[in-house]
Every structure is written in C-alpha cells, then in structure tokens.
Automatic annotation (TrEMBL), chain A:
Compartments, as annotated in UniProt: Cell membrane
Primary location group: membrane
Keyword Transport part of the UniProt annotation: yes
UniProt organism field: Pollutimonas thiosulfatoxidans
UniProt-recorded name of the protein: Branched-chain amino acid ABC transporter permease
Keyword set includes Transmembrane: yes
GO molecular function: transmembrane transporter activity
GO CC term, one of those recorded: plasma membrane
InterPro entries, per database record: ABC_transp_permease, BCAA_transport_permease
Membrane topology annotation: Multi-pass membrane protein
Pfam families: BPD_transp_2
UniProtKB/TrEMBL annotation, chain B:
Name of the protein: Branched-chain amino acid ABC transporter ATP-binding protein
GO molecular function: ATP binding; ATP hydrolysis activity; branched-chain amino acid transmembrane transporter activity
The entry's keywords: Amino-acid transport, ATP-binding, Cell membrane, Membrane, Nucleotide-binding, Transport
Record keyword Cell membrane present: yes
Species per Swiss-Prot/TrEMBL record: Pollutimonas thiosulfatoxidans
Family note: Belongs to the ABC transporter superfamily.
UniProt domain ABC transporter: residue ranges: 2-232
Domain of life assignment: Bacteria
Automatic annotation (TrEMBL), chain C:
Recorded superkingdom: Bacteria
Chief location: membrane
Membrane topology: Multi-pass membrane protein
Keywords for the protein's UniProt record, in alphabetical order: Cell membrane, Membrane, Transmembrane, Transmembrane helix
Lineage summary: Bacteria, Pseudomonadati, Pseudomonadota, Betaproteobacteria, Burkholderiales
Name the record gives this protein: Branched-chain amino acid ABC transporter permease
TrEMBL record, chain E:
Transport as UniProt keyword: yes
Signal peptide (from-to): none
ABC transporter domain segment(s): 2-234
Alphabetical keyword list: ATP-binding, Cell membrane, Membrane, Nucleotide-binding, Transport
CC terms in the record's Gene Ontology section: plasma membrane
CDD domains, per database record: ABC_Mj1267_LivG_branched (cd03219)
Source organism: Pollutimonas thiosulfatoxidans
A Pfam family of this chain: ABC_tran
PROSITE patterns: ABC_TRANSPORTER_2 (PS50893)
Residue ranges that the Swiss-Prot or TrEMBL entry lists as coiled coil: none
PANTHER family: CONSERVED COMPONENT OF ABC TRANSPORTER FOR NATURAL AMINO ACIDS (PTHR45772:SF9), CONSERVED COMPONENT OF ABC TRANSPORTER FOR NATURAL AMINO ACIDS-RELATED (PTHR45772)
Official protein name in the record: ABC transporter ATP-binding protein
Molecular function (Gene Ontology), one example: ATP hydrolysis activity
Amino acid sequence: MTELILQALYSGVLQGGSYALIALGLALVFGTMKIINLAHGELVLLAAYIAYTVESASGLSPIFAIPVALIIVCMTAVIMYFLVSLIKTDRELNSLILTYGIGVILTNAILLIWSAEIKSTSSAWMQDAVVVGPLYSMRSEPLFFIISVLLMGGMWWWLSRSWYGRAVRAVAGNRDAARLMGIDPRRTEIVSFVIAGILASFAGVAIFSYGVIQPSLGHVLTIKAFIITVLAGIGSIPGVLVGALLLGVAEALTITLASSALQELVGMVLFLLVLFVLPNGLFGAAGRRG
Amino acid sequence: MIEVQGLRAGYGAINILWDVSISVRPGELTTIIGPNGAGKTTLLRAIMGLLPVSQGTIQLNDKPLSGIPTWKMPDLGVVMIPEGRMVFKDMTIEENLMLGAFTPKHRAGSRRQCDKAYDMFPRLRERRNQRAGTLSGGEAQMLAMGRGLMADPQVLIIDEPSLGLAPVVVNELFQTLGRLKAEGRTIILVEQSTHRAVGVADHVYLMQGGKVVLSQRAAEVDMEQLHELYFAH
Amino acid sequence: MKTGIIALLVLALAYIAVPLLLGQNNYVMSLIIASLIIGGIALAWALLGNLGGMVSFGHSAFFGVGAYVSALLTIEAGVPVMWGLLLGGVGAVVASAVMLPVLRLRGPYFALAILAYAHIFKIVAIEWSSVTGGSGGLSRIPAFPTVFGFDLAGKVGSYLIVLTLLVLFVLAYRAIRGSYYGIALRAMHDSEDATRVVGVNSTLLKAMMLFVSAFMTGVIGAFNVHYISFLEPDYAFNGVWVTLPIIAAIFGGYRTLLGPIAGALTVYLVDQLIFKNLISSGHQLILGALLVGMIIFSPRGLLPLLATGFRRKHAAT
Amino acid sequence: EEFLVGEQEPLTGALARVGTGMHEGIAVAVEVFNQTNGKHTIKVLTEDDESSPAKAIAAVEKLASQGVVAFTGGYGSNNIGPASDAANKLGLPYITSGGVDNGLVQRGYKTFFRINNTAGYQKAMVGVLGDMKVDSASIIYSTKEATAHLAQDVQKDLTAKGLKVGMHPFDPGISDFKPVVNKVRLIDKSDVILMVGYENDYVGILRAANVLKPDVNAMIGVWSLATPKMAADFPDLMPKVYGTALLPYPTKFNTDEGKAFYDAYKKLYNKDPDYLGQFGYVQSMLLFEAIARAADKGTVKQGGIAEELAKTDRNTLIGRVQFTEGDNLNFEHRMGQHQGDRIEIVWPVDTATAPMQYPGVPWK
Amino acid sequence: MLQLEALTVRFGGLTAVDGVTLTANRDEVLGLVGPNGAGKTTLFNAVSGLVQPSSGRIHFDNASLLNTPLHRRARMGIGRTFQVPQPLHELTVRENLLVAQRFGTGKVNEARIAEVLEFTNLASRADRNAATELALTELKALEIAKALCTDPKLLLLDEVLAGLETAGKRRFMTMLQELHKKFSVGILIIEHDIETISRLCDRVAALDFGRLISLGTPDEVFNDPEVVRSYTGAQS
Ligand SMILES: Nc1ncnc2c1ncn2[C@@H]1O[C@H](COP(=O)(O)OP(=O)(O)OP(=O)(O)O)[C@@H](O)[C@H]1O
Ligand SMILES: Nc1ncnc2c1ncn2[C@@H]1O[C@H](COP(=O)(O)OP(=O)(O)OP(=O)(O)O)[C@@H](O)[C@H]1O
Ligand SMILES: CC(C)C[C@H](N)C(=O)O
Ligand SMILES: [Mg+2]
Ligand SMILES: [Mg+2]
C-alpha cells in the first residue's frame, strides 16, 4: 500500500510539473494583462504537433523540435496579441470571447493539417523507464519536470526582480498612467504573449514526449491551466507550481485510492473549494470578487 | 520651453479646446486656473499626448511633440502627475513609486528617490507594502505626487494636487512646489485654490469654456479682477 | 408602433409561412429546429450576460439537468411530456440554486466556476447510474403527444412547440428588461456598490437572473430530449450546448432581444448549409473566424451592425 | 436501375478516425457491387454527422429528402440510436456495424439491422482467456457506454467461471495511466490485463505498463487495437498485444469475395484493408444485395428492402450473417495478436493462423 | 438618530477606525474632519454597510445595524455619496434616480424625481448618460440627487465639495443648507476645507489615526491644539 501511494505521489508530482508548464503561460498573460487566453491550450497543442511533425520528418528526438516550435508558436502568439489589441471596448470580456474564437480556429486548423488521428512519440529514449528505488517513470517525465522548474524559477526571478515585471503589471492596472510613467504598453504586452508562447512551446513538446495528442486536447489543457491559475492566485508564480503539483498529486491519489472516473471531479472540486474558501488562491492578491 | 499654438482637441466627436495658446518659460511655475469643465485637464492630457490633437501645435524646446508617444515623454524630462487617483491599484505603494523611475536612465537612482518621496510623505513610508487600491483618497493623492517626482523631471505637469488633502498637507505641498521651482524646474500647475496657485506662480492663465481668457504675470494679477473674470460667463 | 407591426409580421411568417412552405422538407425543418434550440439557449445565456452581467461557460449544466429531469419524470413517473418541459426548467432552477455561492465571483471566475459545475453534474450523471442509467444514458424517452389529431412529435409540431417557447422567452425577457429590476440590473455591472447603497439587493437580483436563465435553458434541454428521444451524459452536458449559443449570441448581438436568436439561425444554417460543404472536416474554423471578426469589428453583434448600416443608408438617401 | 443509398458517418469530430475507416469499406462495397451485379447499380450519398447525435438525425433527414432508399453506416451507439430512429420514422431501413449497445435492437424496429454486437466481442475476450487458462484478470475500461457495458459483461462471464477479476474504470479524459496500472501491479497482481477502450486509451495503458512493467502474462484489448496502423505507429508498444481482429495481416483472402474486396480496396486506397473497412463493406454489401432483390420483386417502395434484409443468410468476410430481430446472433469475433510486423489470428484455435505467444508482453 | 458606540474597524494589522463613539442627529449638520487616512471614509463605509466593523455598535433610529444587509440600510433612511463619484453606469440621469427611488423607498413617485432634478440643477441633464456625459459638478450633484431619492433621514456626504471651483462650492453649500431644511435630513459631511466646514456645520468631529480626538462647535474644534497639530497646521 505504501509503495502504491508513494508511486502515486511521485507520478502526481511529475504530472504536476508539466501542468505547471502548461499553466504558467496562461497565468502570466492573465496576471499581467487580465486577459484569459482561452486559446492557450491550443498553443501548447500546436507545439506538440510541431514536435510530431519534426520527429516524423527527421527521426530526431522531439527535443530538437523546440526551436521550430518556438518560432511558429511565438509567431502565432504575436498574431493573437495583435488581434487582441484590436479590441476597442470592454477588453476583459471581449478578449475572453476573442481568444475563445481563436481557439476554435486553431483546433480546426490542427484538425485540417494533422487529421483527427492520435499522435504520440516513437522515441524510445523518451519513453524508457527510469526506476528510482520503488518509483517508476518515463525518462521524459523527470526531464521535463526539471525543465519546468528551471523555466519557472527564471520567470519568477525575472518578473519579480525586473523592471519589465513591474511594467506589465502597471499596464494591466492603468494603461494611461503606465504611459505617463514612460512605459510602452504594446511592447510590454507583446513580450508577455511571446513569453507565453515560449512556455507553450516547451509544454507542447513535453506533452508530446510522454502523452497522446489529438486535436480536441487543447480545450482540456486550457481548463486545467485555468484551474491551476485559480489555485495559485493571480500573479503568483510559486503559486502556479504549488497549484499544479497539488492538482497532479490530488488526481493521482484519486485514481489510486478511489477511481479514475473521479479524476476530473477532483480538479473541479478543488477549483470550487479554493474559490469559496480561499478566494485569493493559495498565494494570490485580491481581485476576483465583485 | 513649452509652446502651445492654436490647439484644438477633445474626446471623439466632442471638441473641448478651442484655439488654446500658452507659453511656458523655463524655470518658471505657470499656473492654469479656471472653473470646473474649463478644459484644464484636457489641455494637460493633450500636451502629454494622451489625447489626439485635431489642430494646432505643441512644441517642447522648439521641437514639435506631434508623433512622440506619451511613453517617451519622461525620457524627454516631462512628467505629468495626473488628477484623480491614477495609481496602480493592484500594486503596493513602493512598487507604484518605483514605476515613477521606469525610464532606464532613472532606474539606478530609484532607491534614493524613493526615500526622498517617503521623507516628503511619511505616511507613505508607514504603508509601503499596502495595496495602493486601499489607500484613502488623500494618501492616493500623495502617492501620485511622490511617484511623479521619482524621475526627477525637468518639466512637471501637475493636475489639482491639493484635491482631498488635509490642510497641513496642502501647506507642505505648496512649500514643496516652491522648492521645486527654486531647484530650477519648470512647472505647469492646475489648481482650484486660486489664491495659493497665484501665490507660487510666475505666470497665470485663466481658462473658461475651452479658451484662454487671461494671460498675465503673477505679480501683475489683481485678485479682485481675476475673480470677476472667473465668474463672468 | 412600427416595430409592433414588424413583430407581428415576423410572427405570422414564423407561425404560418414557415410550416406551409418548408413543412414538407424534413431536413430543412430539422435544421431550423436545431437552430431554434441553440437560439433558445443563446437567449437565456444573453439574458444572464446582459442583465446579470455574468458570462457563463456552463450553461450545458442547465441544459443537461433539464433534459434529465424531464426524461426521468416522464419515463419513471408517467408525467405528461408537456409538463415535463416545465419541470425540466424547474429542475434546472434547483440545480442553479446549488451554484448560488458562485454569484460572489466576478468575470472569468464566474464563467469557469459554472463550467466546473457542469462537469460535476456530468460526472454525477455518469456515476449515479441507478437513476440516470450511467454513461449508457436513457432510452425509450416519450415523444410529444398527438393533440386533436395533430402530431406534435412531427417536424412541424416540434417546430411550433420550440417556436412558442422562444416567443414566451422573448416576452419574459422584454418584460424583465423594461422593469425597474431591469434598469437596476443594467446599472449593477459597473457600479455594484453604488447600486447597493441606494437600496438594491444586488445578490438577490443576480440570483433571480441566474434562475430565469437556468429555467429557460432547462426547458430547452427538456424540449430537446423529447424531440430527439436520446439522452446520455456526454451528450446532455456537452460543451456544444454552450459554445454554439455563445457564438450565436455574440454574433447576433447579446445585448439585444432578438440578436441571440437571429444569430443562432444565421450561424447554424450558414454553417450547415454552406461552410460544411466548403470544408467538410473543420468547417468550424470559419465560425471561429467569424466570431473573431465580429468581436473586433462589431463587438455589439450583427443586429446593431445592420441597424447602423440601415440608418446610414437612410441618412444618405 | 440506379438506387440511391445514404451513408451517415462521422467524418469529423471525435469519431472521425473510425468513421473514415468505415467509409472506405462502404466505398469499396459500391465499387465491387456495381462491377459484379450487372443489373442494378448503387450510388452512395455521404453526409457527415460530425460525431453528434443531432447532426446524425439531420443527416438522415437530409439524405431522405434526396431520395435514398436505405442507410448504411454510422459509428457509436449514441449517434446510431437517434439516426436510426429518424430512419425508422421515415420507414427506411438502416444497417450498421458501428453500434454494439443492446438498447439499439431492443427497440424492436423492423428497419434496423446490425451485423455485430457486444456478445461477439465478449466471446472473443473470454474465449482467449480460457485458452490461456488464467486465474485472475484486471479489466481497465473506459466509462463510455459501449466499453463499460462490454467490460461488465466480460466481468460477469469471468466471475461465473471462477476467475478473480479486478475492475478499473477510467474517464475518457485521463492522461496518465500509471496510477491505474500500478494498482494492477501492486494490488490485483493479476495474470492478464484486459483493456476496453479506444486507440488513445490503449496507447496510454501500454505506455504506463511499459514503464511499470507489471508482472502479467498478456495485454489484451478489443476493437481498434489489432490493426497494422497501430503496429506501424507504436512499434515498441504493440509486440505480443492481443486485440479483436477478423483476419490476419497481411492477409490472404481465400474466397472470391475476399479477393475482390482486397483488390478493390487496394485500388481505391492503395493500402491493405483493416477491420473497419471490412465491417463497412460487409454491412453495405448485404444492404445492396437486399435492394437488388427487392428491386427484382418490385417492392423497393413497399418496405421490400427491410423484408429482404431480414431474410439474409450468407457467409461474409466476417462469418455467417443472419438477422434475429435485427441482431446478428452468429457474430463472433476472433482474437488477433501482434507478432512482429504481422497480426496473427490466435483464437479460436480452428481459425488460428499461428499459435499464440503466451506468456508475452511488449516489455519482455 | 445615528449612534456609534466604540466603533472599530481593522484591516489586517491596521486600525482604521478606533473606538469611535459619536451621535448624529436629524436636525443638525455634523462635520467630519481629520488628516488623510484618518478613517473618515472607512467610518462611512461601516455605517452604510460596505465594510464590517471589527467591534462596537451602530444604531440607527434605535435599531442595531450590525446584521442589517447593505441594501436595507438605504431603506431605513441612510443615504450616502462617494468620495469618487459613482454614477450608475449605462443609465441616464433620470434612470439613476428612478432606481434609487424604486429600490430605496419601494415605490416610484415621478413628482418627487422632478423635484429633486430641479433642486440639484440637473433637470436639463435628465436624459444624458450619467457615466459618460456629465461634468464633475454635475456628477457631484447627481451623487446628492441619488441619495435624496431614497428619502433619507441621514445623508453621509464624502467630500462632495472637493475639486469644485469657489463659485460652485458656494452654490453647493447653499443647496446643502436648503436640503437640510427642506427635506429635513440630518447631514454628516466629510470635508477638508475649514472655511466650508465652519460655515456649514453645527458641530464638528475630528478624527486622527481612527480615534475621535475632538468634538464640538467648529470654533472649539479648530482651535483644539491637537487638531491644529495634526490637521489644520499653522495657517499660512
Ligand atoms: N473622457 C471624456 N469624454 C467626453 N468628455 C469629457 C471627457 N473628459 C472630460 N470631458 C468634458 O470635457 C470638458 C472639459 O473637461 P476637463 O476635465 O478638461 O475640465 P477641467 O478644466 O479639468 O475641470 P475640473 O476643474 O473639473 O477638473 C468637460 O465638459 C467634461 O465634461
Ligand atoms: N481595504 C483596506 N485595506 C487596508 N487598509 C485600508 C483599506 N481601506 C482603507 N485602508 C486604510 O485605512 C485608513 C483609513 O482610510 P480612509 O479611507 O477611511 O481615510 P480617510 O479619512 O477617508 O482619508 P482621506 O481624507 O484621505 O480620504 C487609510 O490609512 C487607508 O490606507
Ligand atoms: C465495435 C464498435 C463498433 C463499437 C462502438 N464503439 C460503439 O460505440 O458501439
Ligand atoms: Mg480637471
Ligand atoms: Mg476619504
């Protein structure tokens, strides 16, 4: 029994690492611009499909797809920002619907390009088992866990210590006042989207390396990412990591101790609980109540 | 230093300013007074590039400001302290202050400037980690003032700084304005308390209904006459 | 006065001309019915958005609960189908009462909290199999009755039922919007504290709007289940029951009374009759693009866009 | 005389992959029928139901308005139910191999026919376990309708036979199967793992098993698993895995019909046929032949097609087909096993093309 | 009419209002002064129900308000304005007043609305959009008009005069004096301008760091050394 629970914890933590990577981009754009990018999951998925294409065309490990994914996904992210910036009124609400529409476009574009068939890596290296004492995982899992934690640490350092970090939050707070401070709002916002694109690229390659992808997955990823963002509390990067680990572990424990049919329930119940009990998330500042 | 010539501007289809011309000399404190809705704030916003100009020119040191985005203004040494509570609500007081020194050349000195702001408004130091959104009306006003001074601006444009401040603080504020002028800064001040504004000013403009109706050296201003003009509709 | 006449004309067209002209074409009728179903949800969704100031991503919860309640009551308790529609709506209201805590939430938090409920309801429908039949769903769902020799289960009959429901919804929406409650609700979005200090119980009003919206959606869900005689959790709580209505409502103009319905008819019919033939797989891509374009160029939707276009034309001539 | 037949199929949406497979088989049936029959020809009009029940109904109605005399196709009991319901209201026959839910035939429609059912899949799973002589099994199954039913039926059968059975339902949205497989490894400690799901589920389960390496002797799945495409896409996951299959791969068709099917398929799609194509082909062929017979008797418009279909008794690529109240009770599946790059039939023994490699799992 | 007993409001570690005991009557204009951040607005918020007191009691017409929901306080006769004007968005000026009246009093009385519009000089603006088409003076007038439409017994006015030009200020003061008599409402007003307060108020209460440091006639209070030190400073 202990072995079972240990393994569940371990799997949950590793899974949480990739959840964090997926959620971070969404949390960043949300925390800095008050925009929930409902197409973020599709961005991640796009990166995953690029990894697939690179792998099947070149036979190289999906890792080598990262540069290609970075270029394409970041370009897509910039186009998305461009569209968002065209919104004239009520940006918070309209961007929600706009990015939702972009998500629909991306999902269907992926469907057109890559068909509905499931794809998955054929890289044996990525899927080989790594055994640490009684704990098992695929090699890609700890690999991307480490990458995820590193990226997150870097992001955290950069956002909290850098002038840029302050600038994005200022723009979110009051555009005109930010401009009076000497901040170019468009530039800081584009940077946010590009960073979200970078994070999505890594996340996409990660999920392709140990999971199965299909066109309808994007939506699921977006929802997971949002749940984690709520758990974290707006604008908290450590919160994202903790929230993601919490979700990953809670899911793994539910599957192990109860039934996997209840897995999805866990995330949702956790989400509602945190909203009601800890309205500011685990680490966040105020702001979600009216 | 700042020359505004025949300016027309407004919000969308509504024009507010009608051929406004003012001239601000370096090192002087120029005050713009006038009743509510005269267009004072609108003029300041137009100078800062926050509003599109439909006619006329604005020049800084003989160079036109058209085409220069608002966010380049602090780099040119021009900072505006907006009216109302345009603070960053979700950020702490200290973060708000730091943003005042956002332009790269001011970043290095930001710590020192920050301490200066705290010295000026000790209340802010007590609250340095409080969210700006929860400040009282007057505290927010102090914060806006302190933040504007962070970039050590050559030209300071201030909109109704005394609004909502306790009398003691207003006294200090006007002393500060005097000191800033003495340091050689150019200041444009929009104020509702006419007496005090004219008291510190070198030059006075009176605006009404989107037009400049009086331009006079402060020393020559006859308060009686000014008030008559003020109330003549 | 003039709008009154136009409304009567449209109603006459909908009640008489459509059945007479298209009644024989099952395919076209089923497309129209399907788009009216979407339109009904879109209307309920827009009511919550426009009056309550709340964007919901979880209306499928009400749709599904309405469907299950009506199906179970008619199958198990022998309740007449027409009563089932009403009770389906009531069931959705009861379900929405569980959601009252989320009324404290704002914007996207509210939207996604409701979505979480929809997921939870779906899982309940799957796991509580002794009542709901689990993931297999329910079969042998009774169809609409035959009244005075007229088969309401047929295409024309079903069409008239759903059309009547929509007309009632629109009238109810209009009445609420015009009342003092409607005015207070409009004010509440951007100035809630200010509204409350003049005596408006904002929580209660918002709850009422949630109930009304849930009720309408539940009735539509119940209608659909008897119309299509099929029910399983995946279908009843499917995301399309909220995504299509949102697209339709935004497209038509969610701030207007008839925009959501007009949007649903346009979007659904154009999608099925045209886009589907252009790109068989992934034709929703065009819908997504339309939505994006609409938000950017006319965030208030199609009807207001047409209205300005109309006005401009008249001004020109 | 040319007859129009409607095909309602999920060509997009969640079921697009399988729907497309079926569709290919149907197209091949048209090709073969039109070349061999001589007297009548068939034209199939295809309508995409986008994997949604409402659209499936609309598709059937649209096709009916275009004058089709019968329907072939559909996938997923939840789409087939309402679609065949609509067909029944219109008085048009509907034949399928895409829905195994028992509720479909319990409706008692005279117009509804299907050539496969849960029982056939169940027999194959239970049968191969009998040959393996195992004492315990763990069933990992999707909570979707068809899979949950099948899993429960298999469980009943196995428990009745005295086996110890562990049940592990999973949600279709699950992404990591390790905790599930780990339960099998550490708690159940079963002899074999039965997988009842769809392609992505199999891949996930096999992945997890590959990592955790539970001490089992066989990995057995059902539909969508013993296909050449899976072997090609996931070479490291498939070795020795079992899945239902009717024919080995690469296959040699011995019958004339089989050869004709194979050639036509190869010609149209330039690849070897898989089981979905076979199903689509068989159901359509039976329908086309019934139409031809009804046409000869001049009863096409008087419900003759359904009557002729009900009388069907014929050996087909999937075995003998007869309809009892719309269901083909003869239907019995076979069990295939990935062996190298081939798929061999290993159960029942009398039709086996190779002995099963037991015990055997991908990671051993 | 309004009685505060040892009212205390804390935000985390900060005590914004600290044990204030104070009575406001219907027949007087009571001024509330104090340095920035002294807790004046917070006190208003506690009375109107926007924040929960941490301890102490609030009575209105001898009924405790502690468990009275915010919207019901309006019906009981407590009207308030906001330091930053908060018109009801999307509504016209008239609709603003309609809402205030319908929900603040339970009925609609067009004549009364006309009267209030006239009184606050907003009649010509009745059909303008309140949030986007009003100037500052008009917004301030609307704040008062809204509160009046709820038939208040007590008006809480938070810096309604701040930012107004001298003439405007004078007009508003006259208006306040008139409405105090005409509608017989008590007024509790926050204001930083000493002259205004002296002219308008019967009594003045001064707060500092949340505590009530002085209470009395304007003269008494503004000559109180503690008030001079913390608030008025040496007059320049
Ligand atoms: N965003 C806006 N849209 C439309 N009109 C506006 C807007 N802001 C201000 N106005 C109008 O422009 C006119 C001038 O306003 P402005 O704020 O410049 O006056 P002001 O002189 O600063 O007055 P105050 O002393 O009250 O601050 C007023 O009539 C006001 O109603
Ligand atoms: N939500 C809050 N969280 C933390 N502190 C708060 C909050 N609201 C108010 N405060 C603090 O409480 C103190 C009192 O604020 P309040 O707004 O009542 O002051 P005030 O007397 O109205 O001042 P002013 O004259 O400047 O408007 C201030 O120091 C303010 O920073
Ligand atoms: C064997 C398959 C055709 C079964 C199908 N998945 C169904 O839902 O019934
Ligand atoms: Mg101004
Ligand atoms: Mg205050």
